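Appendix B, example 12.
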Amino acid sequence: MRNTTKTLAVALTAGALTLGLAACGKDSGSDKNGALVVAASPVPHAEILNYVKDHLADKAGLKLEVKEFTDYNTPNTATEDGSVDANYFQNQPFLDDFNKKKGTHIVPVVTVHLEPLGLYSHKVKKADDLKSGATVAIPNDTVNEARALKLLDSNGVIKLKSGAGNEATPKDIADNPKNLKFKELEAAQLPRSLDDVDAAVINGNYAIEADLKPAKDALVLESPKNNPYGNFLAVKKGNENDPRVKKLAKLLTSPEVKKFIQDKYDGSVIASF
């Protein structure tokens, strides 16, 4: 329940901030001389941003403030309404789906890293060891659910129907030789489900936050080759040329950040530049 409570508190804080800004008649993006406020998932996004803040930002003349969010919705809505200036937590298919469904106008600035999606289990050591009728938990948001199913398809666990795309659901499974049952959960809840299900497909950031090591612990793991799910810095459309955003984009794709990612995450997070 820790993440749920934290999410509510952060959401309330973001809401209060929004009301305060509205009362002042301006949003955070209007002050180009102030700190750049970036919404981020705690791991690895906020960790990477805090590395930039602590080691690179001052020299570049950038004031940076990092706000942590534990859900996949508030960062975009906060960026849209001006509660924050930017966010760093998502990939292109997720953003496309979010903008379409919510009517937001968020755009990517620069891609920084990939968190490979993985299948994890406390009960089996290999995907082939899953028993007939086993329950597999998967993310319940549109894009990550499809991504999870594609991971299982690419590793021969299931077979999706031809043409199943970024909105695939269990209904798009053409062949399910183990008769697996799928339990759809909020992405943040998946690590905690491992004791209750036979396996779970978990996003990289939540896996790392739960002390799982994707490069070592995943039964199957996404390949970084030609992977469309790189995570990027994003802003509301029209703010791409904010000098602060440009500075942060350059720092996030610097050799120093690449080395930080390599050293800290040991293949569980992969730099995309």
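DSSP finds ten helices and 13 strands in the chain. Confidence is low (pLDDT under 50) at residues 1-29.
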